Amino acid sequence: MIARRYLSREEWDIMNNNLQEAKQMVGGNRKEAVRLANEALETGLELIGATGVEDRLQPGVSETLESLAAAGIKVC
Q1: Mean local confidence (pLDDT), 40-66
Q2: End-to-end alpha-carbon separation of the chain, Å?
Q3: What is the pLDDT averaged over residues 48-70?
Q4: In 1-76, which ranges are E strands?
Q5: Partners of 2 in the beta sheet?
Q6: Are 2 and 45 in contact (CB under 8 A)?
């Protein structure tokens, strides 16, 4: 997925600090702290588009693509 979110400089500084602090943690909570920091940054996004790589279709993918097209979502 490709999405965006506009942040003020102050919002960016706070979120970036939180992420950097989480990445520098030592111990078992580091992975969870990084996940939570990323999750906070990845909320309220505006969907711009989606992309993928060509691959063999897994079960159910054809039906999903048909549903997206039926909903008016362009699938290339």
Answers
A1: 81
A2: 14
A3: 80
A4: 2-4, 46-49
A5: 49
A6: no
